[in-house]
Write a structure and sequence with these properties.
With 236 residues, the protein is α/β, with parallel strands linked by helices. It has two domains: 170 residues, Rossmann fold (3-Layer(aba) Sandwich), CATH 3.40.50; 53 residues. The chain has a seven-stranded mixed beta sheet with strand order 3-2-1-4-5-7-6, with helices on both faces. Helix 2 links the parallel strand 1 and strand 2. Helix 1 crosses helix 2 and helix 9 packs antiparallel against helix 10.
């Protein structure tokens, strides 16, 4: 099975585990890939909707993995009961929804071996929740797919909460430390997006001055970080 770059990166970050719980599994592509590549003993494909689970079951049957992959219907982390040998994957959702899922299922999130998280947008909301709720971001990587750049975060529960400057909720410190090859492009895309937001606010007239100032400060911080990274890359 050939995965698209986003899902391939998610799967590559999964450590060898007893069980992998794939939340919002959709068609069970990640569980099938992990079982085929012997990254876990078994997997559980979870989804809140029945339709995707029916397709997941058909895909599982095609590969004859009925004894290795289970499907469960339910919201967020409610259908699971992980141990310290198990990994939880949450991919392909908005950052706020992922943060809400983690908040509602915090007991289960703190008991697993590792979280592999891939938000489609609003990643700053997810990263802030992780940092402030005692999860250590031990790895992070970017990948490009269909003109978009996606983040994949690897986190483990340490119980130690940290609080960062706003920019580092938008740009993971691990990405900066590793000098991720896509980071400068990612930063430039974020700056362009901030420019769009600024123009929209200014076109709408008065009433959002405080928010406008916050966006301008964040945009400037992104530009400074991007310029520093460009200089570092030129030296290597």
């Amino acid at each position: 099975m050939k995965l698209k770059p986003r899902l391939e990166l998610v799967a590559r970050k999964v450590p060898v585990s007893n069980t992998v719980f794939d939340i919002g599994s959709d068609h069970a592509y990640i569980p099938i890939f992990l079982i085929r590549n012997k990254r876990c003993n078994k997997a559980v494909a979870c989804d809140i909707r029945n339709g995707p689970l029916l397709i997941a079951k058909k895909n599982i049957e095609i590969f004859h993995y009925q004894s290795k992959i289970e499907t469960r219907q339910g919201s967020g982390l409610i259908p699971i009961d992980p141990s310290c040998e198990d990994t939880i994957v949450i991919a392909g959702m908005g950052g706020k929804l992922i943060a809400d899922i983690l908040e509602q299922g915090k007991h289960n999130a703190t008991r697993c071996k590792m979280l592999i998280i891939q938000p489609n947008y609003a990643i700053e909301v997810t990263r802030k929740w992780l940092c402030e709720n005692g999860f250590d971001i031990v790895d992070e990587e970017l990948c490009a797919e269909d003109e978009r750049i996606y983040n994949v975060i690897v986190a483990v529960y340490s119980g130690i909460s940290i609080y960062l400057d706003d920019i580092y909720y938008h740009i993971g410190k691990k990405l900066i430390k590793k000098r991720d090859p896509l980071l400068i492009k990612y930063i430039n895309k974020k700056v362009d997006k901030f420019d769009e937001i600024i123009k929209q606010i200014e076109d709408n007239g008065k009433g959002n001055e405080k928010y406008l100032d916050e966006i301008k400060i964040l945009k400037n911080a992104f530009k400074i970080e991007g310029e520093m990274l460009c200089k570092l890359h030129l030296k290597t």
